[in-house]
Amino acid sequence: MSLRKTLFTRSRSRIVVLLATAAMLTLAMAGCGGSSAAGGSVSWRLAETHPRDFPTTQADIWFADQLRERSNGRIDIEVFPDAQLGEERDVMEQVQLGSVEMTRTNANLVTEFVDSWEAFGIPYVFDDEQHFWNYLNGPGGKSKLAELDQAGYVGLTYYDSGARNFYTAGEPIEKPADLQGQNIRVQPGSLTAEMVDAMGGSSTTMNFSEVYSGLETGVIEGAENNLPSYVSTGHYEVADDITLDRHQRVPEVLMVGEQAWNQLGEQDKKLVRQVAEESTEVQRELWRKEVEKARKTLEDSGVNIHEVDTAKFRESVSGMIDKYDEKFADFVSAVDEARQ
Ligand code: GTR
Asked: Which strand ranges, in their side-by-side order, compose the sheet holding 42-47?
């Protein structure tokens, strides 16, 4: 059994969910469930992994400020950056249980809770940024958001996250064979572990905040992420070779737990959805600037940026791509339609 399955078994989360649901029901029956009537006030916490000045966090804050203003203070959301409310995966559980109301998370982290979201981890499924956003803004992206309902989440909108790339502390990766003998950190629950294995490397699941020391102490040889995260975490200081292989484009998603959502009246639900959608444009603009800024920081710090033949990387995982294209045929056909 892989480390990630051992550490984060689904059954364990189900038991926690059942226990918590029972506890919530008891509270609700006792008349102290904490929900406000339609049109009433709510006070929510929004968990964010990134620091305050990161584009996702800035968009979360914009969303919260706008909602406070447009609801005359009735919808009061406080953003907690820097994983103050816990690591991303644990927060997902808390949002499901209702102990944290909202989060912004990466789609790869959702896969453990909603199987069909694994599809976002299929390597090279999107050609480029335009294709990615055509899909997300189209019918496919919209119905994918609705699938979050199955696990007790309400998906509000997507944020950009660019393309993910490998970076290493020792030997650079210029072709898939260079992954041999390298242990790469991957996000909990994602298809990335299988991808790294298929490319010939090995993988270790680790929380985001542990990656810096993992690289520094040599527990892992490398990791993978987009340029802004590579810079904001300081990973480039301890792993100064980055390979622009662009293996995945995995969206960020802004979501609310179902219990919190049901505290809102219909008008407020509409308002929250609308402001969330508007915040996507804010985030995308900030994201574009952040990618440029990150690139400049890397160049100025003498990091080795390797442009590579991405087709070779894609080819090395073609078996895996075929397998998941078949498993997620509906997703893939919506993605194909978004190409035209
Ligand atoms: C980032 C993402 C974070 C987190 C991180 C990771 O791109 O924005 O939410 O998932 O990757 O690698 O853990």
From this structure: 75-80, 42-47, 102-106, 252-257, 153-159
Ligand 1 centroid – CA 166 distance (Å): 13
Decide: 233 in ligand 1 pocket, CB within 6 A. Answer: no
Same domain, 242 and 312: yes
Q: In which residue are the tokens 């294709």 written?
A: 131
Count, residues in the chain:
340
β pairing state of 252-257 and 153-159: antiparallel
Is residue 3 assigned to a domain?
Answer: no
Residue 35 lies in a domain: no
pLDDT (tens digit per residue) in 123-162: 999 999 999 999 999 999 999 999 999 999 999 999 999 9
Distance CA 140, CA 291 (A): 26
0.85 cut: is pTM over it?
yes
Ligand 1 pocket residue status of 226, Cβ below 6 Å: yes
Percent helix / strand / coil, the chain, rounded to 5: 55, 15, 30
Domain residue limits at 48: 42-161+251-291
Q: Report the nearest atom of ligand 1 relative to the CA of 250.
A: 7
User: CA 284 to CA 278: how far, in whole Å?
Assistant: 10
Tell me the two tokens of residue 54: 């990161």
